[in-house]
Amino acid sequence: MKHIRNFCIIAHIDHGKSTLADRLLQITGTVAERDMIEQTLDSMDLERERGITIKSHAIQMQYQRDGISYTLNLIDTPGHVDFSYEVSRSIAACEGALLVIDATQGIQAQTISNLYQALDHNLEIIPVMNKMDMESAMPDEVEDQIVDLIGCDRTDIIRASARTGEGIEEILAAIISRISPPKGDPEAPLQALVFDSVFNSYRGIIAYFRIMNGTIRKNELVKFISTGLEYNADEIGILRLNRIPKNELSAGNVGYIISGIKASSDVKVGDTITTVNNPSTQQIEGFNNVKPMVFAGIYPVDADDYEELRSSIEKLQLNDASLSFEPESSAALGFGFRCGFLGLLHMEIIQERLEREFDMDVITTVPNVSYKVITTKGELIEVHNPSGLPPVTLIEQIDEPYITAQIISKSEYQGNIMKLCIDKRGTLKNQVYLTSDRVEVTFELPLAEIVFDFYDKLKSISKGYASFDYHITSYRKADLVRLDILLNGEMVDALSTLIHRDNAYNFGRRMCEKLRELIPRQQFDIAIQAAIGAKVIARETVKALRKDVTAKCYGGDISRKRKLLEKQKKGKKRMRQVGNVEVPQSAFLAVLKLD
Question: What are the structural domains, with CATH classification, of the chain?
Fold first, then answer.
């Protein structure tokens, strides 16, 4: 065990984590030169296209130093705020972390947030200043920021460039000398923490684990503590670029287990594996359940695909434990699922993965957050969906979630950022100058205001410099109303939103205008109305396509034409009663992009 080191890489998005992981794999000879591609660990097409890490990836490396062979287990992590749950899982399985900071940009919001998580788990932090080969690098300023942040010596900070390979040997030496080997007793009852899992259509579910205590052997009977289910360990092994089978793994190691599990509900991330012969009664602590921030409905385009969509979401949930879902039905869209996400990017990625990996055509409804409603009888109801709101007469008050947001940017953009936050009903809590031209502002904001387009707007007004991190703090009373969209007097529940009373009129007006452009014309007039309760606050009309029924009349008495027009009028009246209006998928998405 004293020759094992488990570590992860944490950093803000785009600070060079994946490139650094590539260099480590190259120098330790884990990946042959001919197999080397950029961002080796980012195995998903989506990750490569967008240049972001979505999943944390585990890989084992062997490194020779002073004649001793060390086993290094690296767990690479994402940097975007929407995937912070992946980071917390990686941190729970490690003893140390490389804190990577871009020498051209300095410390960003997500760096600080991930660092605090690592410190909470008592991880050894090794600060690495990356991108030293860039002309715009500011090593001395960034070094000051790092010393201020974690209080280390200047000599502890490693200057490196993942692109050129400078400083990589120093990083490997620091991992071996500074990070402590895993603690644990190989002779104790088995305790292995499940930190990830994937679905394989031939082998069933493959669970990735980190052994805290004990030893696991091939073909041994194992038990998952929280579900109480027992399985035979058909194959165990370690994770290189491919899976390498082993006969036994002991405390401190990271590996995988294949035991022919078919149902995705049988494996829970954060569960503990133990053996049936010598079981441990205790589960491993320190693993948080994820709280979804944003809720949206996902419905199959074809109602017959409902069961297939369910199994696709279950398989996806194995690989992404922060996704939660429950069945729901809608009058406009039929049967589907109410899904909880960590943010809008997370929602977009899930939708795209469903389409790419499982060939599912889905419609996603308007995202919203969860509210707490106190009724006149004093009951507390949690509402994830505007259509689940009780009638107005039964509502005493509605509480909405508030967040504390930390935004770090250059001071020249500070005025615009403050205006954006105040427009979103935010209150300024704190403002700190980190250096002469970098400022950190702390705002309290309603979560519902940042769900749609806050992150995009923040990036555009700060020319991409501002970084943003948030966490939910409390629920507070809010003056909210339910805005319904009616088509020909029929409510479309998938377009309903809960919105602050001050913004309702403006939002309803813009919604109606947008829908008028998107809904195709019919043989009859379509009235598009925005209403709060029984009061209509905005209306637009999609005019009818008019068929010229009098074209075949030439000359003769006017009563002939009138007779045909009357006949058409009756037909249109009947058509309006029975005709239904199809709402295209683009209309559901357009609501997100109203600005």
Answer: 4-178 (3.40.50.300), 191-275 (2.40.30.10), 294-365 (3.30.70.870), 372-478 (3.30.70.240), 482-593 (3.30.70.2570)
